[in-house]
Amino acid sequence: MSSTGSNVSTRQAGPAALAAAALAFLAAAGCGEPAKKPMDPKQACELVAAEAREPVALIAGYRAYLEEPKPQPYLPKRRTDLEEAAFFAAEEIRHAANTARQYAARTLSPVAAVVSPPLLEVAVRCAEIREMGAVAKCRKAARDLEPALQQQARKCAAAGLGAPFPLAEPGAITDKARAQLARLENALGPGPAEKAMLAKLPDAKVSEDDLVAACAAATAEADTVRRELDKAGPEELHRVAAVHQQALGAHCNRVGLAAGAHNGVLACRKKPTSKKDPRYTECKIECAKAMRILDEGVPAEAFSAMAKDHEEICKSEDE
């Protein structure tokens, strides 16, 4: 069951099932007996504005996780942890959009139902996402919702609504929504130790040993979060934390391998006396390890001297 607390069958419905359910809901105009007549426009706007405020605030907050990740120096181009967070955010957006749409449809008022079709589009496009192409469609539907909300706000203001109608923008994120968003932020990171490690990646003054230690602290922090969510968090958030821990661990593993390879090359600065010297083969192996790291790209600026050291030491071994 996901964090927003709806029943499992609703949250796990696919796009086709959602569309069918939406049509059935619109025909029935809500749960239980349908209203005999549309609500007064002002009354309808007051109901929708009040009840849709939190769902719309969640859409505004989670929408940031649907954006294409920006490339960061030294980190992998594909960030599987950010992808997992996008899948989670899309499902939360789907549920929030469906909740807001239900309140609008329940009024049977044309004035308050402007947002129903775009909210339904969001609910359909953001359902059951497990690949980034679908995330792009969800992101577009969520962006296209904003003009409809603005149109709804104008219509409700004309109908006499005193309070502002909720919009899916950063300023509309409520404290309650922030508390819910904080759970994803905790699962995805970065926490304090990881932030400190990330700050060291582009810093040429950081020693390799310091970077390895910072990586150890960051991975331990991520493991703690994963374990906590394993005990108390919903499965979907635990998956985000687990994928993040794996992604962070993979990068920090590269940091450790780079440090070991660089040290191995430096140890070969004292040349073997001959090809029969056991250190000759050892140095060949160490130079090959370092070359693989250099071909893939060093994982931090701390290893910027590795290329020069490899050129000076390993090339001389071949001569």
Judged by helices, strands and strand pairing, the structural class is mainly alpha
Number of domains: 2
In helices, the fraction of residues equals 55-70%
Radius of gyration: 27 Å
The poorly predicted ranges are: 1-13, 18-32
Number of helical stretches of at least 4 residues: 13
The average pLDDT score comes to: 87
The N- to C-terminal Cα distance equals: 65 Å
For the secondary structure, the number of strands is 0
Specify the overall morphology. elongated
Order of helices and strands: HHHHHHHHHHHHH
Please describe the biggest sheet, giving its number of strands, its sense, and whether it closes into a barrel: none
Beta percentage is under 5%
Please describe the structure with a list of short key phrases separated by commas or semicolons.
mainly alpha; 2 domains; disordered N terminus
In summary, what is this structure?
With 319 residues, the protein is mostly helical. The chain contains 13 helices and no strands.
Architecture overview:
This protein is mainly α and 319 residues long. The protein folds into two domains: 181 residues, no CATH class; 129 residues. It contains 13 helices and no strands. Helix 4 runs parallel beside helix 8, helix 5 packs antiparallel against helix 11 and helix 11 crosses helix 12. The N terminus is likely disordered.
